[in-house]
Amino acid sequence: xxxxxxxxxxxxxxxxxxxxxxxxxxxxxxxxxxxxxxxxxxxxxxxxxxxxxxxxxxxxxxxxxxxxxxxxxxxxxxxxxxxxxxxxxxxxxxxxxxxxxxxxxxxxxxxxxxxxxxxxxxxxxxxxxxxxxxxxxxxxxxxxxxxxxxxxxxxxxxxxxxxxxxxxxxxxxxxxxxxxxxxxxxxxxxxxxxxxxxxxxxxxxxxxxxxxxxxxxxxxxxxxxxxxxxxxxxxxxxxxxxxxxxxxxxxxxxxxxxxxxxxxxxxxxxxxxxxxxxxx
Length: 280
Fold this sequence. Notes:
Layout: E1 4-8, E2 18-26, E3 32-37, E4 41-48, E5 50-56, E6 62-68, E7 72-75, E8 80-85, E9 92-99, H1 103-109, E10 118-119, H2 124-139, H3 145-161, H4 177-189, H5 196-203, H6 207-218, H7 222-240, H8 245-251, H9 257-268, H10 272-279
Antiparallel strand pairs: 1-2, 2-9, 3-8, 4-7, 4-9, 5-6, 5-8, 7-10
Helix pairs in contact: 2-3, 4-5
């Protein structure tokens, strides 16, 4: 009998919201994952059992959370994390990895962020509905990309609606046209030499204001977003193709393979070749 399920979302260009991977797992006693750094938001909901999350706060402190059935926890992009199943009652959870321009905004509305990673539903019944929405992804992998993106929106709507820590976020941050245009421009041009000055000029914004507004909305600087776009695209190519590493480096905006390998190892903790061997 299977004790886990894992699926990868097709590589489509959805900007506001996009699922990346999803699945569920019934963990063995003391099974742990990490320390690891994710490139996207990763939300777990505990179906049964319990375990412990070790989460790095923004200031670098490590916080320990003892979690159990009908609770959830969030891992943010770039955050070091480790989580371990209980020895006596190991947890079973469903998980969903996603991202997008509005992902952070919606998570904040649900009261979730790096320094507040634990999710509490208002009731067990509402928690069960949220769980079922997450399991839907694993049970309907044959659905179209557009269908699954739509279901991600429904999941986030319920995440907010059912949260015991629901917040009112600043709506205008989700409608910043210029930053939306900047994200599109970076995603369409990261394969070549690209500077942040060029992106700011394209948006007709002052460089300092542009960088500040970009970080407020996206959660990272334009340069960090560009590097992340290049390296996550490279990781997908390493996992899904047999192309030489030099070709992948060229396709992802790194004409110098040595610079690419250095940047990749700094971001993932492994060389491109080592990462491919572990993930292909």
